[in-house]
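Private note to self, pasted from the team thread so I don't lose it. Backbone tokens:
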């Protein structure tokens, strides 16, 4: 199992992307929450609001999700960061495999 972290310009866009990910059976769940960021863009410090997506999936789906994020991204250069999970409980692992396959 891996977690994928990425952002979206707002919760509405994040929800649309999450629905596509779930509908395509690319993840077992996508958590969403609003966020505020301070970041550098083209040499300038900026502030903005957006949304975080935290995606639970299998490593075999990473590239497809990364490609999907690239086509749905509405701002800048998307960060798509994947974190390997060393251990998860058996029941959730079975659920994840059932959802994503």
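Design output:
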């Amino acid at each position: 199992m891996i977690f994928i972290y990425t952002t979206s310009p707002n919760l509405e866009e994040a929800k649309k992307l999450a629905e596509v990910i779930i509908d395509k059976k690319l993840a077992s769940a996508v958590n969403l929450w609003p966020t505020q960021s301070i970041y550098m863009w083209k040499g300038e410090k900026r502030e903005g609001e957006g949304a975080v997506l935290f995606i639970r999936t299998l490593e075999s789906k990473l590239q497809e999700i990364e490609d999907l994020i690239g086509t749905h991204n509405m701002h800048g250069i998307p960060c798509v960061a994947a974190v390997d999970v060393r251990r998860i409980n058996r029941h959730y692992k079975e659920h994840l495999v059932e959802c994503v396959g």
